[in-house]
Design goal:
- With 492 residues, this protein is α+β, with helices and mostly antiparallel strands.
- The chain folds into four domains: 135 residues, Beta-Lactamase (2-Layer Sandwich); 40 residues, no CATH class; 94 residues, Helix Hairpins (Orthogonal Bundle), CATH 1.10.287; 161 residues, Heat Shock Protein 90 (2-Layer Sandwich), CATH 3.30.565.
- Helices cover 60% and strands 16% of the residues.
- The strands form three sheets. It has a five-stranded mixed sheet. A four-stranded antiparallel sheet has the order 2-1-4-3. It has a two-stranded antiparallel sheet with strand order 5-7.
- β8 and β9 form a beta hairpin.
């Protein structure tokens, strides 16, 4: 290859790269914009219908055909609507509007029906036929306009880059290469390097020319020692390769040992927690039987103490299992109802709250949908509710959930309990999660695993959680989560 063709080859490579990018961009936009156009069309129509529902319900209740026809004409500003019918409960038409533009009825129509109510009573239906091909044609036209403009700008940029590369890169390099090729390195002398000074170059190529001059000058001075230098360099490379190989082997062994130790720890905890559950279930079972057979109040209190201690130990074992699962199992991803996931934790904690005569309130939007792991979310809420109930003697504990920005969900658990002092509150606010209970003025004991599990699940979910003080008493814990994607799990 000749150096003078470098700019041409660069231009060809850039043209190929640009064409591939445009094709990829076009395919991507076709696969995304067309479905998005349909979805956006349906969303816009939903907003329009929502704004017209009161007027349509009124017209339908009065069976006012003129008013209904006037209201339905509003849909002519929406290009994707082919026809609209307002029907009463007997499926009889009260009002109708059909687009009259001389076109035949499209082949691809989508029927959407909205029920209408007037004063909380069913009044009828609104039926809309959507022409999805109109939405696709608009999206396709906009896409071709963008691709055409991008191709035009790309062609102009390629022409400019070709001339700039030829003037500033390939021509100086060609001259430099020609001057270097005339130098005989076997009988190199300093005067043989002088032709390089006549090569016109600037910036990096000038630096390249000067570097070549320095290299050739030093080569001319030390040509006699070249062979010895090569031997030393070879020995150094061999020594360095041996050291790198040795260190790599040591690091690999250390990594394998660390992985074995981590797996052994996880396996040990899994086995021990499950093994401990068997005798613990026996203790709880026998204590339950004894409590039914013994009528002596003193002995019955002792049996109840054994049962309560066993229940507490069972909770701790469950927490340890949840904690270990976070290391060995990734978060799952599925769409689920936030209301259903939180309702499960609420129902599980309800008997515990009722046993302390506390009011456990449930204020969750039934329409909230989230993509993620409902089982782990249930664990988070269960621990927060358990803490709230444990440290509240009078009043209530409230579980609430509402939409947050970026399709997220904000979940809150607030209580009217003893709260925490300023020092400990600041530690939790700054993320210093420890297992000490000083400053809580609490009568209950705990290992703090619930807080650690909540913190770890939120980190793996890439969510946020924080504490707030309730006035005049209690604590509010907020957990903010967004849709969980596959790549987030791999990073976690």
């Amino acid at each position: 290859m000749k150096l003078k063709g470098l700019s041409a080859r660069l231009a060809i490579y850039m043209i190929i790269a640009s064409l591939l990018m445009q094709v990829g961009h076009g395919v991507y936009r076709l696969s995304v914009d067309i479905p998005d156009a349909r979805k956006d069309g349906v969303d816009v129509l939903n907003h329009l219908v929502a704004s017209l529902k009161p007027a349509l319900s009124l017209a339908l209740s009065q069976l006012d055909q003129n008013l209904s026809d006037e209201i339905l004409k509003t849909f002519r500003s929406y290009d994707g609507v082919f026809g609209v019918w307002l029907l009463d409960m007997k499926q009889e038409g009260v009002g109708v509007w059909i687009r009259e533009d001389g076109k035949e009825e499209p082949e691809e129509l989508r029927e959407v029906t909205w029920p209408l109510q007037f004063k909380n009573k069913d009044a009828g239906y609104l039926v809309v036929l959507m022409d999805l091909s109109v939405l696709e044609q608009k999206a396709m036209s906009h896409l071709w306009d963008e691709i055409g403009f991008s191709v035009l700008m790309g062609a102009i940029n390629l022409l400019l880059l070709y001339f700039i590369a030829r003037r500033l890169v390939t021509k100086p390099i060609s001259s430099l290469a020609k001057a270097v090729s005339l130098i005989n390195v076997k009988s190199l002398k300093k005067e043989n390097i002088e032709p390089l000074n006549r090569v016109m170059a600037s910036d990096e190529i000038a630096s390249l020319r000067d570097s070549i001059k320095i290299i050739l000058s030093e080569l001319a001075e030390h040509l006699g020692d070249n062979q010895q230098a090569m031997i030393l360099l070879k020995e150094f490379n061999e020594s360095l390769e041996k050291q790198v190989a040795k260190r790599t082997l040591e690091l690999q062994k250390a990594k394998d040992a660390a992985e074995v130790a981590a797996n052994a720890k996880t396996d040990f905890l899994n086995v021990m927690t499950h093994e401990l559950r068997t005798p613990l279930n026996g203790v709880l079972g026998f204590s339950s039987i004894l409590k039914k057979r013994i009528v002596d109040d003193a002995n019955k209190q002792l049996i109840e103490g054994i049962e309560q201690a066993g229940q507490g130990l069972l909770v701790i074992l469950s927490d340890i299992i949840d904690f270990v699962d976070l290391d060995s199992k990734p978060l799952g991803v599925q769409g689920f109802s936030v209301h259903d996931a939180l309702s499960s934790a609420y129902k599980e904690m309800l008997p515990k709250a009722q046993a302390k005569n506390l009011e456990l309130q449930f204020q969750v939007d039934s329409h909230l949908i989230l993509k993620g792991d409902p089982k782990r979310l249930n664990i988070v809420v269960r621990h927060l509710l358990s803490n709230g109930i444990k440290f509240t003697e009078h009043g209530s504990v409230t579980l609430s959930a509402e939409p947050a920005e970026n399709n997220g969900v904000l979940i809150s658990v607030s209580d009217t309990g003893v709260g925490m002092d300023d020092e400990l509150f600041q530690q939790f606010k700054n993320g210093m999660f420890n297992q000490k209970e000083r400053g809580f003025e609490r009568s209950s004991e705990g290992l703090g695993l619930g807080i650690a599990i909540v913190n770890r699940i939120c980190r793996k979910w890439e969510g946020q959680w924080w504490f707030e003080k309730n006035q005049p008493h209690g604590i509010k814990v907020n957990v903010k989560l967004a849709d969980l994607e596959k790549q987030q799990i791999e990073v976690a």
